[in-house]
Amino acid sequence: MAAHQDRDGWEALGDPTRRAIVASLAERPQAVGELADELPISRPAVSQHLKVLKDAGLVIDRAAGTRRVYRLSPEGLGALRDQLDTFWRRALDGYQEIAAQDVAAQDVVVHDPDGHPTQEDS
Fold it and tell me: 3-state secondary structure string, 27-93?
């Protein structure tokens, strides 16, 4: 993955055609023509979408004779997954804090040594 990405991966995935290309490349590496055969757009349009995905670090390519074969970049997708994991952890931490505050605000029923319920503030 390039040290500097011209586009953000999330922005690149905002387009449904690019998401379709990523989904197709998740199955196997493919050339532009193969991708164009699966999509309702021209080869030049597929190439433009691949350039955006490549600039975002989400796909890489290699020469195979006279054509270029594209595949997903594990590093680029890994970076997006790391960001998503961070968002998820932050959300869970926030929910946990709210739940803890709700529990602390409620009276908790405890039992005395004889097993009888008593009310105590936690």
Answer: HCCEEHHHHHHHCCCCHHHHHHHHHHHHHCCCEEEEEECCEEEEEECHHHHHHHHHHHHHHHHHHHH
